[in-house]
């Protein structure tokens, strides 16, 4: 297991939704920020990785388990740990806790290093990840199995243009943006009585400025299935009743 890094946080107004809950896209954005702070503290900032190797970190998979969403103005604790890695993938966990230390949200994530010029995945070098003290393993974690497009039933479709505001520092669509696009396709009345309990996200191909996002949504029981651009990104949201 790796070195744990912890940060106190207070949920601001601009990261809260219409129900005074912290947005899931904000959870993902703050998680990235906290992981970046740990990397800087360990001397492995994004700038350090790029200047020496021409590489950048990219998240390719998330799994979120939501016990309770943090609320507006709530003081929480965010903890992260780079748990293990192999020659191509790095695994990092996040825990969002209340002030009593009770677990609110768990996030498991999978990361890769990408070449800035070729936009291809590169090998994980020990020199880059050694300071995190995460375990080197040979096993590759099995990814979540998403519903294939041909398994979608009745679908709803929306097309989004990729504008400048959707991009992050790596020049592609910010990964948190996809969740907002997916969840925005769910009816407001349903959202008033339900919230996500379990979320899976897989980024297969990056989308760049000027492209279009074709978003498809299909329902099966209490699960919404989302597919962007023929599988470039896949999202599965398990919804639960709010009591």
UniProtKB/TrEMBL annotation:
From the UniProt record, which GO molecular function terms apply? acyl carrier activity; fatty acyl-[ACP] hydrolase activity
Q: Name one Pfam family in it.
A: Acyl-ACP_TE_C
tRNA-binding among keywords: no
- Report domain Acyl-ACP thioesterase-like C-terminal positions: 155-224
Task: Give the record's family classification.
Answer: Belongs to the acyl-ACP thioesterase family.
- Alphabetic keyword roster: Fatty acid biosynthesis, Fatty acid metabolism, Hydrolase, Lipid biosynthesis, Lipid metabolism, Transit peptide
Keyword Lipid biosynthesis attached? yes
Q: Which source organism?
A: Lactococcus lactis subsp. cremoris (strain MG1363)
The segment(s) forming the Acyl-ACP thioesterase N-terminal hotdog domain are 3-132
InterPro entries attached here? Acyl-ACP_TE_C, Acyl-ACP_thioesterase_NHD, FATA/B, HotDog_dom_sf
Matching SUPFAM superfamilies, A to Z?
A: Thioesterase/thiol ester dehydrase-isomerase
Q: What's the protein here called?
A: Acyl-ACP thioesterase
């Amino acid at each position: 297991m790796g070195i744990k890094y912890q940060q106190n946080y207070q949920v601001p107004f601009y990261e809260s939704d219409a129900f005074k809950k912290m947005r899931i896209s904000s959870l993902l954005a703050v998680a990235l920020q906290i992981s970046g702070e740990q990397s800087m503290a360990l001397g492995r900032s994004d700038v350090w990785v790029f200047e020496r190797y021409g590489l950048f970190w990219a998240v390719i998979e998330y799994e979120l388990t939501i016990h309770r969403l943090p609320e507006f103005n709530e003081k929480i604790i965010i903890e992260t740990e780079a748990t293990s890695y192999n020659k191509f993938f790095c695994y990092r966990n996040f825990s969002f806790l209340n002030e009593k230390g009770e677990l609110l949200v768990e996030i498991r994530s999978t990361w890769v290093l990408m070449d800035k010029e070729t936009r291809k995945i590169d090998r994980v070098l020990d020199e880059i990840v050694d300071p995190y003290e995460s375990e080197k393993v040979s096993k590759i974690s099995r990814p979540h199995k998403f519903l294939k497009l041909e398994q979608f039933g009745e679908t709803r479709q929306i097309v989004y243009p990729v504008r400048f505001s959707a991009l992050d520092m790596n020049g592609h669509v910010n990964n948190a943006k996809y969740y907002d696009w997916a969840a925005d396709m769910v009816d407001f009345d349903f959202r008033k009585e339900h919230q996500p309990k379990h979320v899976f996200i897989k980024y297969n191909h990056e989308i760049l400025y000027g492209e279009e996002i074709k978003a498809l949504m299909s329902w099966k029981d209490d699960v919404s299935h989302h597919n962007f651009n023929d599988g470039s990104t896949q999202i599965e949201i398990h919804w639960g009743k709010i009591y």
